[in-house]
Amino acid sequence: MRGKLRYGMVGGASGSFIGDVHRKGAEFDRQAVLVAGCFSRSYERTLATGEELELDPERLYRDHNEMAEKEAAREDGIDYVIIASPNSAHYAAAKAFLEQGIHVVCDKPMTVTVEEAEELAELAAKKGLLFCVTYCYSQCPAVKQAQLMVKNGDIGDIKVVVAEYPMGWLVGPVEHEGTDEAPWRMNPKHAGISNCVGDIGTHVEHTVSYITGLEIEELCARLDNFGGDNRPLDTNAHVLVKYKNGAVGNYWCSQVAVGHDNPLTVRIYGTKGSLAWCQEDPNYLQVAKVDEPTQTMRRGNPYFYPEAAQMTRLAAGHSEGYYEMFANTYRKFNSALLKLKEGRELTPEDLDFPDVKAGLQGVKFIHRCVESSKQGSVWVKFD
Amino acid sequence: MRGKLRYGMVGGASGSFIGDVHRKGAEFDRQAVLVAGCFSRSYERTLATGEELELDPERLYRDHNEMAEKEAAREDGIDYVIIASPNSAHYAAAKAFLEQGIHVVCDKPMTVTVEEAEELAELAAKKGLLFCVTYCYSQCPAVKQAQLMVKNGDIGDIKVVVAEYPMGWLVGPVEHEGTDEAPWRMNPKHAGISNCVGDIGTHVEHTVSYITGLEIEELCARLDNFGGDNRPLDTNAHVLVKYKNGAVGNYWCSQVAVGHDNPLTVRIYGTKGSLAWCQEDPNYLQVAKVDEPTQTMRRGNPYFYPEAAQMTRLAAGHSEGYYEMFANTYRKFNSALLKLKEGRELTPEDLDFPDVKAGLQGVKFIHRCVESSKQGSVWVKFD
Amino acid sequence: MRGKLRYGMVGGASGSFIGDVHRKGAEFDRQAVLVAGCFSRSYERTLATGEELELDPERLYRDHNEMAEKEAAREDGIDYVIIASPNSAHYAAAKAFLEQGIHVVCDKPMTVTVEEAEELAELAAKKGLLFCVTYCYSQCPAVKQAQLMVKNGDIGDIKVVVAEYPMGWLVGPVEHEGTDEAPWRMNPKHAGISNCVGDIGTHVEHTVSYITGLEIEELCARLDNFGGDNRPLDTNAHVLVKYKNGAVGNYWCSQVAVGHDNPLTVRIYGTKGSLAWCQEDPNYLQVAKVDEPTQTMRRGNPYFYPEAAQMTRLAAGHSEGYYEMFANTYRKFNSALLKLKEGRELTPEDLDFPDVKAGLQGVKFIHRCVESSKQGSVWVKFD
Amino acid sequence: MRGKLRYGMVGGASGSFIGDVHRKGAEFDRQAVLVAGCFSRSYERTLATGEELELDPERLYRDHNEMAEKEAAREDGIDYVIIASPNSAHYAAAKAFLEQGIHVVCDKPMTVTVEEAEELAELAAKKGLLFCVTYCYSQCPAVKQAQLMVKNGDIGDIKVVVAEYPMGWLVGPVEHEGTDEAPWRMNPKHAGISNCVGDIGTHVEHTVSYITGLEIEELCARLDNFGGDNRPLDTNAHVLVKYKNGAVGNYWCSQVAVGHDNPLTVRIYGTKGSLAWCQEDPNYLQVAKVDEPTQTMRRGNPYFYPEAAQMTRLAAGHSEGYYEMFANTYRKFNSALLKLKEGRELTPEDLDFPDVKAGLQGVKFIHRCVESSKQGSVWVKFD
Question: What is the pTM (predicted TM-score) of this model?
Answer without folding.
Answer: 0.96
